[in-house]
Here is the input.
Amino acid sequence: MFLHEVIIAGFGGQGILSAGRLIAYAGMLDGREVSFLPSYGPEMRGGTANCMVVVSDEPIASPVLNSCTALIVMNNPSLEKFESYLKKDGVLITDSSLVQKKPVRDDIRSFELPATLMATDAGNKAFSNIYLIGKLIKETGIITPESFEKALYGVLSKSKHYLIPQEMEALKAGMDY
Amino acid sequence: MGERLLMKGNEVIAEAAIRAGCRHYFGYPITPQTEIAHYMAKKMPKVGGVFLQAESEVSAINMVYGAASTGKRVMTSSSSPGISLKQEGISYASGAQLPAVIVNIMRGGPGLGGIQPSQSDYFQATKGGGHGDYHLIVLAPSSVQELYELTVDAFNLADQYRMVAMILGDGVLGQMMEVVNFRDEEPIVKADKSWAASGHGMKREHNTVTSIHLDPAVLEQWNIALQDKYKTISEKEQRFELYKCDDAEIIIVAYGSVARIAKNVVQVAREEGIKVGLLRPITLWPFPTKAFEQVIDKPNAFLTVEMSSGQMLEDVMLAVKGRKPVHFTGRMGGMIPKVDDIMAKIREIRAD
Here is the structure.
């Protein structure tokens, strides 16, 4: 059964919610069932932000996740909060330029990626989330890079479309890391 | 098939209202439903409709009363504390038999409470939050697709029965995104609106829309007419979903976003060999007592799960009428019940 339950967590402003929304959108384009549940309220404005994304071949029972198959974390508190949510053999992807803590579990597949540094070096810090999505695609196959590109065209306003080639380069760099 | 879009629950409510022919929206912002107003502010001018941000919830509901009096399809939306402010207007509209749609995307209370999802306005919605002997038709969607379909239905039911229909959701439903399939054309019910105060051009007697009847004998007759209408609705409009109840030893009763979590519980429990089913009320008023009559023989027990202290629980007990044990578990204040917690309760019930 194709079932991916992803939690993405970090600070507000890191593109946490847009990353989740893009994955859900791409999953829809792949013909899957999808749900996207963002955190909302004051935590979005500079505090912690997280979202839960489900991509599945079956109708989705609950968009609220108590466990996940993959976890992307972009700050230390999020690793502490959500590590226990990962199912056995689940995929953990951390932005190692921001997360110093190491996971305590040894029954998960853990990957570190200095996404914020890579994005800053490439000239656009705002794409750090895209590198992490690249790694997620590589390790889980949750969506295809092709549908992700289509999702960018679908979600971003036309005035931002000129950035999409750069974002696809970031995605590829994340996949290849 | 129409369009297939990834949309936020709140936006879908607004889009559904416009598709259902609503051209008048009056509101006041409050988390977690403000996207409804955002969407209306953007879209209403484009379809020749009216979006108006009132100076308060009290104003907004009285604007709804005014627009509804003319027979136009009208909506307002808010979240728990704002809905409390609207109660006087809702009672007046119910007294005057005005069709309108009111959306409550619930958050934790009482008082100003918090902004996280809750179901603690069940009593307020189903037992009459304002004064007087009245009911609202209360619809409880549990997916973005249902937010769309039930919002359209709410306008039809409101018109058909000349009463207020409420969409009762919560922060999870309002904020989440799912795929929604829009129909090419909406099934709009054209109701008789010859009662409306919509201008008579000196060609007929004027209509009066009012909730005041100072002669108690007249007011009693008015109340009897309301109750007759409610009885008809109770008989004809109950809606529910039964999920894997046929062989269930325990049937969970849950609505809205909690019913989604309960579906996960049904799966997890069945993987463990425990036969659990789900009875999901879609109408909270009228409460779907017929669903209980269909399933009452099979289960050993019912388990009500809510994001409240146990409000729907009372209606479940009235429907079960002591024939089977009724248990409860829930969270409050914006906390969401976890699959593991509900499973623990199920194991506890079985151990008894």
In short: The mean pLDDT of chain B is 97.
